[in-house]
Design brief:
elongated; 163 residues; mainly beta; four-stranded antiparallel sheet; 10 strands
Length: 163
């Protein structure tokens, strides 16, 4: 049995300018799949929407601090295999580093770490990891890869148990 370190709540807020995959209607029915190790969680599909508002909370258990998060967006199809609409790899390293700092007592909304976009990351813009209401929180805009366009806005909240 794997050693559980804590939980990661990912709030999938919305998609922005996602790719068209339903050519007839010039739209898509997107949903997000998030994988971490052997775990897989997903949002509900949003019908005919290139700028969907999911506003869904997905939760993963953390047992390995080096396991990246993989995000994939698909177009839900009724009679064929769902079409890929892009993907992103999200590093949890800076986020775990912030959690390990033991930030209790800091004022609300204290910026702990600034994460800058680079060639390896899928961040579309700078992301701040902050201490808020006793939790480590990070809002981020992720640029999708392997697709002509699209971004997904997320928030992750970390709760660690044994670190």
């Amino acid at each position: 049995m794997e050693n559980l370190l804590g939980g990661l709540k990912i709030h999938v807020q919305r998609g922005v300018k996602l790719a068209v995959r339903d050519v007839v209607s010039s739209t898509s029915d997107p949903y997000v799949v998030i994988k971490m190790g052997k775990q897989k969680v997903k949002t509900k599909p949003m019908k005919k929407n290139l700028n969907p508002e999911w506003n869904e909370d997905l939760t993963l258990s953390i047992s390995d601090l080096d396991t990246p998060i993989h995000l994939q967006v698909y177009d839900k199809d009724s009679f064929t295999v769902d079409d890929k609409m892009g993907d992103a790899k999200i590093d949890i390293g800076p986020f775990v580093e912030a959690v390990k700092m033991r930030l209790e007592g800091l004022p609300n909304d204290t910026i702990v770490i600034r994460v800058h976009p680079n060639r390896q990351s899928c961040l579309a813009e700078e992301s701040k990891i902050v201490y808020k209401d006793g939790k480590v929180v990070q809002n981020m805009v992720v640029r999708l890869r392997n697709v002509e366009c699209g971004e997904v806005e997320l928030q992750r909240v970390f709760r660690l148990e044994n670190i």
